[in-house]
Predict the 3D structure of the following.
Amino acid sequence: MPIPPTSNPPPAKPARSRREGLRAAVVAVILGASAAVGWWLGRPQSPAQAPGTRAEAPASKSAKPHQPRFASYGSEHPSDDVRHVADWSLDSGDAGGRAIVIVDKHEARVWLFDPQGALIAQTPALLGAAHGDDPVPGIGEKPLADIQPEEKTTPAGRFVAEHGVNSHGEDIVWVSYDLAVSMHRVRPTVKSERRLERLASATADDNRISFGCINLPVAFYEESLLPAVRSTGATVYVLPETRSAQQQFGSYDVAARWRGTRTAPA
């Protein structure tokens, strides 16, 4: 009898099931790993873990006490106001890491300190002929011939010195360009003014002769002031003569402020 035709047997279900199960397991592993990586990258990070940052040191339980800083004067004996402003500018950091220049109008003397507060040099100086601390409005724009005797003041205040040149091409140190006040070598061009003799005299009473600029001995200007300004810059404090230094600068007495932290020098 004829043999009935046979059909191909259906695929073996158990083998297919094994392949699908293996594929599902692989997919599950990949999805699980992706989720883990996403969680790791998206989790909140502390500063110590953030890329490109360093862990911050834990805050100190007790902050170090402030160590007051005092200028040093060698064998010199500055006025109380000079000492006060030199100490304060150093201790407070007001000088900004620059050399410190203090113009004492009462004593007609200029004091120069390095950025660490060590005295470099000091010298007598010639100052504005008129007493007073406030500049006349527009004084920097006036021709010298138009400046009245009472307007010839050396203004008090804090200034950042700038090396420059005057209208004659002479190098000077600007105290304030806007006020046309500078520090420069003494110019003994008018013999009747006796500027060199005034600088050499033992008293400050005859040192008020200029239009407002600060005239200095040539050696002090060239060997002390100019190198300091070129090297580190300089912060200039022109002490007032009609009010206190505290009123002018908002300064404080270093020894009194930090009393108990360290004994102030004598």
Summary: The radius of gyration is 38 Å. Confidence is low (pLDDT under 50) at residues 1-17, 46-57, 262-266. The CA atoms of residues 66 and 234 lie 25 Å apart.
